[in-house]
């Protein structure tokens, strides 16, 4: 999905409401950033960006905005996509209506409500002593490795998903699964729920449909890693910090 940004000297920034007052009527409130209320609106198909503005792919802004701005971009993507894709009832086809005071659209015929949806996914760093397991997804740039991740199945707990995804993707067993943190991820409308786990047994056997390569890495011998904004990198950096922390008695 494209986003409209102000761009000056190659640096993107978020437009203000005063830049495009004609979009205000259909705008969705997102929250506040630096004391300013923020909104998102669907861009008309025939909109030609004025001088100083341009349409860009949302993914191209990753690492070009700070954490708070990128979080706002992610929220706007999810809400605008929900608004666009739920204009009609999925049961009877009637046009839906926005519900005042709620983040919802409702069918006026059968009263079915439609809310923005997220797809929960786990992401896990598996450790074995002072090494960590990283994999290279088949879709990654050639040298980049990251932590393992996957979507939660219906009826599955987050911890069950962690164990299943690791077993399916690299063939090993794990234990001591612990919650680390979470991060909304706009591409796929996901909520990434981070965990750490420890190696329990088995040899690495990758699922070639998902993982091109997986290996154990030490903090002193690292491949290309994900950008620092991602929860994958937060997991990796936290492990490195723990391993390199001076041990008691040393």
Automatic annotation (TrEMBL):
<dbReference type="InterPro" id="IPR050241">
    <property type="entry name" value="NAD-cap_RNA_hydrolase_NudC"/>
</dbReference>
<dbReference type="Pfam" id="PF00293">
    <property type="entry name" value="NUDIX"/>
</dbReference>
<dbReference type="GO" id="GO:0005829">
    <property type="term" value="C:cytosol"/>
</dbReference>
<keyword id="KW-0520">NAD</keyword>
<dbReference type="InterPro" id="IPR049734">
    <property type="entry name" value="NudC-like_C"/>
</dbReference>
<keyword id="KW-0460">Magnesium</keyword>
<dbReference type="InterPro" id="IPR000086">
    <property type="entry name" value="NUDIX_hydrolase_dom"/>
</dbReference>
<dbReference type="GO" id="GO:0019677">
    <property type="term" value="P:NAD+ catabolic process"/>
</dbReference>
<dbReference type="GO" id="GO:0006742">
    <property type="term" value="P:NADP+ catabolic process"/>
</dbReference>
<dbReference type="GO" id="GO:0035529">
    <property type="term" value="F:NADH pyrophosphatase activity"/>
</dbReference>
<dbReference type="GO" id="GO:0046872">
    <property type="term" value="F:metal ion binding"/>
</dbReference>
<protein>
    <recommendedName>
        <fullName>NAD(+) diphosphatase</fullName>
        <ecNumber>3.6.1.22</ecNumber>
    </recommendedName>
</protein>
<dbReference type="Pfam" id="PF09296">
    <property type="entry name" value="NUDIX-like"/>
</dbReference>
<comment type="similarity">
    <text>Belongs to the Nudix hydrolase family. NudC subfamily.</text>
</comment>
<keyword id="KW-0378">Hydrolase</keyword>
<dbReference type="Pfam" id="PF09297">
    <property type="entry name" value="Zn_ribbon_NUD"/>
</dbReference>
<dbReference type="InterPro" id="IPR015375">
    <property type="entry name" value="NADH_PPase-like_N"/>
</dbReference>
<keyword id="KW-0479">Metal-binding</keyword>
<dbReference type="InterPro" id="IPR015797">
    <property type="entry name" value="NUDIX_hydrolase-like_dom_sf"/>
</dbReference>
<dbReference type="InterPro" id="IPR020084">
    <property type="entry name" value="NUDIX_hydrolase_CS"/>
</dbReference>
<dbReference type="InterPro" id="IPR015376">
    <property type="entry name" value="Znr_NADH_PPase"/>
</dbReference>
<feature type="domain" description="Nudix hydrolase">
    <location>
        <begin position="116"/>
        <end position="239"/>
    </location>
</feature>
């Amino acid at each position: 999905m494209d986003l409209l940004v102000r761009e000056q000297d190659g640096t993107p920034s978020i437009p203000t409401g005063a830049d495009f007052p004609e979009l205000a009527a259909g705008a969705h409130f997102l929250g506040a950033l630096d004391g300013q209320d923020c909104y998102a609106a669907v861009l008309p198909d025939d909109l030609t960006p004025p001088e100083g503005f341009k349409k860009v792919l949302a993914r191209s802004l990753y690492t070009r905005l700070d954490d708070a701005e990128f979080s706002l971009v992610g929220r706007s993507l999810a809400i605008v996509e929900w608004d666009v894709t739920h204009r009609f009832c999925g049961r009877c086809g009637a046009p839906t209506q926005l519900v005042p005071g709620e983040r919802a659209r409702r069918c006026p015929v059968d009263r079915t409500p439609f809310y923005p949806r997220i797809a929960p996914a786990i992401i896990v760093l598996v450790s074995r002593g002072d090494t960590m397991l990283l994999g290279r997804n088949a879709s990654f740039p050639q040298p980049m490795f990251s932590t393992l991740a996957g979507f939660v199945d219906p009826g599955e707990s987050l911890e069950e998903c962690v164990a299943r995804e690791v077993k399916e993707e690299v063939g090993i067993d794990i234990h001591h699964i612990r919650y680390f943190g979470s991060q909304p991820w706009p591409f796929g409308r996901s909520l990434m729920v981070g965990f750490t786990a420890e190696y329990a047994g088995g040899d690495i056997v990758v699922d070639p449909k998902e993982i091109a390569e997986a290996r154990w890495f030490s903090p002193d011998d690292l491949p290309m890693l994900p950008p620092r904004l991602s929860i994958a990198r937060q997991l990796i950096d936290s492990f490195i910090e723990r391993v390199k922390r001076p041990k008691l008695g040393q």
